[in-house]
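Many introductory courses stop at the sequence. We go one step further.
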Amino acid sequence: MAQLQRKPGRRVWHAILRLPNGQRIWRSTRCTDRRAADIRARQFERELAEAGDAPHEARPLGDTLKFFADDRKRIGRAYGTVKMYEIKSGHLVRILGADHDIATLTLDDVAAYIDKRKVEGACTNTISKELVTLRAALRVARKRGIYDGHPEDLIPTGFAPKYVPRKRWLTTEEFEKLIGALPAMRRPHVATMVYTGLRLSEAERLRPNHVDVERRRLFVPGTKTEEAAAEIPLSASALPWLQAALAQRSEGQKTLFAPWGNIRRDLRAACVKVKIDPVSTNDLRRTFSSWLEQAGIPRGTNARLMRHTTTAMVDRVYARSAPDALVAAVDHLPATHVAPVPPTSAAGDDESDLRRDAGS
């Protein structure tokens, strides 16, 4: 007989059913009344009994995730978004198994997945994005009629970590140390990202014809959003690095920068070498926005140069003020000619006068 159970903090009853192979599955009754939920659970049992001898057509997790990524591409999601889904799907398939039937996925499977990813060193925010991918793929499968479960029931209650953006950016002194620690052929790649605010995927897709030295313009082939594809101005500081990249290209190289197998590892190694805090490729982009912020560039202009449609991401994630800049900012507050304590009067006398005035 099916068992009824409510998850902590929820009013809806769930039926716990046992399959012929002994595996337990959860199905929402969508009922808050215990008696109605019991009727619905008995209906579930009858359906299972009637389908007992019918062969079950497995729906492999790998195929479900691939269809989802292809579907996102089909409906026009940005290249970077689809790529993110494919990467997250890779971890799900690797641990849960490409042949795992989505109909038999349980909360215990997902809990074990979370534990495994934590052991591997994945942060909570990364794991959350992977579970979002799983949930979204199962929702699409439900719309296709090949999955009758409820994806939300597979996500542990409360597993929705708040995103805390990094705050790391390079000072000019740190930037010079980092550049000096890198091989000569890699320096233009990193410097261009710092001086233009390019994402790593955008820098990797640059081609020589995207650089217009005479007009000091760079065409950026966007990967994350439609607005990301744009022509941006080049600063006088950025131009020499792009010219160096053009001069360093090897014969037959189609992209502006030579392929870089593991830029994240090499950046960390260079930081360790010059004894500065590690930086990621996104920290290079944050450096660009932070330098604009510290130069007093309006947030709206900063956002446009970062190729965001609003200032929200600049405010929340990218623009960081230097401590000295904050001190300099408050020094602009107007001074007063009134002395804190009048030289001819004691503070105690002033307080007595105030009390007398208040009482009059």
